[in-house]
Amino acid sequence: MAKRRLSVSLKRTAAMHITNVSVGNDKLCYLLVVDKKLSYPTGRSKIAYIGTTEKGLTRISQSVAAKADEVLAIHGVKAFEARVVTCAPRQNVRTWHKLERAMLLIFRELFGEIPRLNRQGNRIRATNEFDYFAESRIKTILEDIG
Fold this sequence. Notes:
By secondary structure, the protein is an alpha+beta fold. The protein has one domain. It is built from four helices and three strands, in the order ββαβααα. A hairpin with a 2-residue loop joins β1 and β2. It is globular.
């Protein structure tokens, strides 16, 4: 008796789409953005996570893989993407950490709490982040994403 062959299918949409946005810029901040707006106490946003990395694309892909189940478990979410936010380096300043903190502070100000998948940052307080970044520019970026 011949064994029945398995059917093979190619999915219409890409499972991962990689661009050269973050290549060459290892120290950066990234956002995990879902395909629907999530409810927060004082608004709605597509941002589910704000993170930072010194290792560039490698860390972003690890974060996407690690958080995929958690992100896709959110009711109504079918897809998400990682968006990169960069800033110029400054000597003796970990600017990517300052950028992440600034984004968390502004996000909390706009939406009432930090992004749903962030674990740390609930009690974050402003120090000197806005000496490096314009508060209005961070607000614009977060509002433009949705």
